[in-house]
Predict the 3D structure of the following.
Amino acid sequence: MKNKKRPRSKKTAPFLTYEVTESGELFPFLREVLANRSRNSVKSILTRGQVSVNDRIQTQHNYMLEKGQVVKILKNKEAVKQEVFIGMSIIHEDEDIIVIDKEAGLLSIATKEERRQTAFHQLMDYVKQDNPAGRVFVVHRLDKETSGVMIFAKSEEVKRKLQNNWKNIVKERIYIALVEGQVQKEKGYIVSWLKESPTHKMYSSRVKNDGQRAATRYRVIQSNQQFSLLEVELETGRKNQIRVHMQELGHPVVGDKKYGGGHRRMIGRLGLHAKALALYHPRTNKLMFFRSEAPKSFYHKTK
């Protein structure tokens, strides 16, 4: 399998980046591009979560790569330097908050199936290195398959302040959504009341106050006959809000099997990314902006 390495500037050294030119399994691909490493070394790099495909962590040895996908490998030295964070990096940290850039595929918090490899657990280990009594607290969540900006508090007091005043503290929450089909209306505003079924699936009601009010604004960035790329602003932050509203719009999020979407293999993940979060700092009241660039694969599909 011949694969070309993309030219990288000196400032982007933490990752080795490769573009897939022929389909095939991930492990043989890694063995080829990391020809100077032993088989066990390549296995370790994959198992530790240092490999991502189209910005989604991938640890499956027989994962099938497709032509045009981008494989990133976090260098070992950088993995150690970042306290071996898997699937995330810290954007901002002060005495009150930690803001991370989460990759698709990483859980925000533990589930019955996965307790350790989560953003929360990694940050708990991280803060305890400087202070054994240190803790982090979940302020809000991103779905496992959603990437982007996420904030944690470093005390229960700050967590409560952020959660209790979320509507006033948060000035802006912007997502990028890759959805199916060509959205005809350039801008739109969706309001409904969301409820949760016994199977934990959210659904929308148009009956006023029949559930939690959910409001979503969107605008089309670019589109073609197959896909549309939207900038989505949350007026409220309900569970699966964007995914439900996009389904209701008739243009489900790409890869969102739960809410009517398909084409997962085309980008290897859910087409949803938390691009920007603007909020007033809970202690200083200073307005702060945090951003994460959406995966290039989102833009490529709508050219």
